[in-house]
Write a structure and sequence with these properties.
This protein has 430 residues and is an alpha/beta fold. The chain has helices at 20-26, 52-55, 64-76, 89-101, 115-132, 153-157, 183-193, 217-230, 251-254, 282-290, 306-321, 324-339, 365-370, 374-384, 407-427, and strands at residues 31-35, 38-41, 46-49, 108-112, 140-144, 175-178, 198-203, 233-237, 261-264, 276-280, 348-352, 359-363, 387-388, 391-392, 396-399. The chain folds into two domains: 20-59 and 323-427, Aspartate Aminotransferase, domain 1, CATH 3.90.1150; 64-321, Type I PLP-dependent aspartate aminotransferase-like (Major domain) (Aspartate Aminotransferase, domain 2, 3-Layer(aba) Sandwich). Helix 3 packs antiparallel against helix 11 (306-321) and helix 12 (324-339) packs parallel to helix 15 (407-427).
């Protein structure tokens, strides 16, 4: 099976995370439409979307119900402002529904424009909270190796992915990085710094862009206990894992993390309109809701955007009506059984799966070191065979499809990946 890749001459668009010299040479790959787990290029060729766009298309592409909700809301009022006491009904309704799903009952919902906004919002809220409760010295934030946490200035300072930090110099002080899978290292870092100086620990329950790494439920339980015993806020970055990706509405619920803050985006609207949110547990929200005159001077023009909220409500309707979160849990074993045979390939060192619709196929380190174009060639070979995936940090292929895929789609991904890896590895041999 092959696909004619649709390219167009270069435009003025500067693509994120792109070698623009290469894009300028070949032209962009242009997609025209989508239907559930498939997308189509401008020549009409169909591709299995193995990544849900960029981890976000949870309910799938082309959902007319969401498009109608967006259009109807835009025709009434697209957005005004949510500063002060202003609001539009869809944002109020979405906040109530998200709060009802939150890992901690009674959470408050602060809307942002996306995931990176949510990270920076939380980073500021941590400091503002400790100031409000009389401990302004708690300024240090701890993060993990391999962590992503978005691409804003604050989020980049939290990154555990070194290439994302290169070329910027020192970003922000008061950030400490620890091992991604060692709760004792977290405890040692807090104790060395002094708990009275540490504001929060930012943790992706399952690391996403850093390579799909799960440190295990025991690690999460121990790390959570470390923070609780030392009074350090726990921030669950669920921009990827939120709204069903791990087979529960939130990974923090599945692993009983009782987070102080939860960061969300992507699946909140299934990517139909940009939107994110920070869910604040009652402990963190209390100083701002219970004390008259306490104002958090923070927000975005598009906080609580009415059209985005309408998209979020429609996406939640689909997730609930079609029981797609439970479907993710049901498909979890099929992900592992479909991908496990890939570990037998000479060019594959590991397959990481076992938590919802999240997996990575890790290419062998020596091959990657000898051929820095191996991973891009594998991705292109899969595209030519009708499957869209992407390369992750460390040299792995990403699997995070829309929740509407079936076991046959997972098998297709595995079969195409095997063909593409063999073809790409063979073409690189000398």
């Amino acid at each position: 099976m092959s696909r004619r890749v649709a390219f167009l001459p270069v435009t003025a668009m500067w693509h994120p995370f792109a070698d623009m010299a290469a894009v300028s040479d070949s032209g962009p790959f242009v997609l025209a439409r989508g239907e559930r787990q498939f997308v189509f290029d401008e020549s009409g060729a169909r591709y299995l979307d193995a990544t849900a766009g960029l981890w976000f298309a949870n309910v799938g592409h082309g959902r007319a119900e969401i498009a109608a909700a967006i259009g109807e809301q835009a025709a009434r009022i697209a957005h005004f402002s949510s500063f002060g006491d202003m609001a539009e009904r869809p944002a109020l309704e979405l906040a109530e529904r998200v709060a009802a799903l939150a890992p901690v009952p009674g959470s408050r919902v602060f809307f942002t424009s996306g995931g990176s906004d949510a990270v920076d919002t939380a980073k500021k809220l941590v400091r503002r909270y400790w100031h409000a409760v009389g401990e302004p010295g708690r300024r240090v934030v701890i993060t993990r190796e391999r962590a992503y946490h978005g691409m804003h200035w604050g989020g980049t300072s939290l990154s555990g992915i070194d290439p994302n930090r290169e070329g910027y110099g020192e970003l922000q002080p008061d950030v400490v990085r620890v091992a991604w899978d060692d709760a004792q290292a977290l405890a040692d870092a807090i104790d060395a710094l002094g708990a009275e100086n540490v504001g929060a620990f930012f943790c992706e329950p399952v690391i996403g862009a850093g390579g799909v790494h799960f440190a295990g439920e025991e690690y999460l339980t121990q790390a959570r206990r470390v923070c609780e015993e030392r009074g350090v806020l726990w921030v669950s970055d669920e921009v990827i894992t939120g709204f069903g990706r791990t087979g529960e509405w939130f990974a923090s619920t599945r692993f009983r993390l009782d987070p102080d803050l939860v960061l969300t985006a992507k699946g909140l609207t299934s990517g139909y309109v940009p939107m994110g949110a920070v869910l604040a547990a009652p402990r963190v929200a209390a100083p701002f809701f219970d004390e008259p005159g306490t104002v958090w001077r923070h927000g975005y023009t598009y906080s609580g955007h009415a059209v985005a909220a309408a998209a979020g409500l429609a996406s939640l309707d689909i997730l609930e009506r079609e029981q797609l979160v439970a479907r993710v849990r049901d498909l979890e074993p099929a992900v592992t059984s479909s991908l496990s045979p890939l570990a037998e390939l000479d060019a594959v060192s590991e397959v990481r799966s076992g938590v919802g619709l999240l997996a990575a196929v890790q290419l062998e380190a020596d091959l990657l070191a000898a051929d820095d174009q191996l991973l891009p060639r594998v991705v292109l070979e899969m595209r030519r065979r009708g499957v869209l995936t992407r390369g992750l940090v460390g040299g792995a292929l990403q699997l995070s499809p829309p929740f509407v895929v079936d076991e046959a789609d997972l098998k297709t991904f595995a079969d195409v990946a095997a063909e593409a890896i063999e073809a790409a590895a063979g073409s690189g041999r000398t």
